[in-house]
């Protein structure tokens, strides 16, 4: 079954003590079955080296999302950044689906979501702790929730692995929008959590 046919996902980041590239499994919470995988690609040794420095929050990234058959569904890409991240969401054939634009000075983290024509269509807003995010359209309707799930004290203290639950409103049926919603957990983790912000 395609990842995009589901409305509830559990995103589990692979544990790594000294990892440069991020990797995740996307699970069906009802069965625990892996229904997708996510892999970060690091283009060269220089970027890989910088991932272990304070500069990692400014580095570019490319994250590919695959279904359970290994077919690429979409890619998230960010270039070098200083203050505000802009993350492009691309379809399987590299067509632009939309973009996440980070907002500055927001308690808990905030992104404005743009469609393929670069028009703002939604907002992803974190709570004051930055653990729970709500994806709302311009009319204020909730399209999805992204919630951080705790892995246990040992993993939380000694690794950078984060887990998220993603609940999509069943009324979200348009595939492009659903892909933008699904990419929210990875955008939150790569932009906000990897930098410890």
**CATH topology tier name:** Porin
Q: How far apart are the termini?
A: 35 Å
Please outline the major beta sheet.
12 strands, antiparallel, barrel
Average of pLDDT = 84
- Structural category: alpha+beta
Helix coverage percent of residues?
10-25%
Global Rg: 16 Å
What is the CATH architecture term?
Beta Barrel
Q: Strand percentage, roughly? A: 35-45%
Classify the oligomer. Answer: single chain
CATH superfamily membership, which one?
Answer: LURP1-related
Uncertain runs are: 152-159
Strand order of the largest sheet: 1-2-3-4-5-6-7-8-9-10-11-12
DSSP strand count:
12
Counting structural domains, the number is 1
Q: What's the total helix number? A: 4
Characterization of the model:
With 197 residues, the protein is α+β, with helices and mostly antiparallel strands. The protein has a single domain, classed as Beta Barrel (Porin), CATH 2.40.160.200. The chain has four helices and twelve strands; from the N terminus they run βββαββββββββαβαα. It has helices at 45-50, 153-158, 175-182, 184-193, and strands at residues 8-13, 23-27, 34-41, 61-67, 72-78, 86-91, 96-102, 110-115, 120-126, 132-137, 142-149, 163-168.
Give the topology.
Layout: E1 8-13, E2 23-27, E3 34-41, H1 45-50, E4 61-67, E5 72-78, E6 86-91, E7 96-102, E8 110-115, E9 120-126, E10 132-137, E11 142-149, H2 153-158, E12 163-168, H3 175-182, H4 184-193
Antiparallel strand pairs: 1-2, 1-12, 2-3, 3-4, 4-5, 5-6, 6-7, 7-8, 8-9, 9-10, 10-11, 11-12
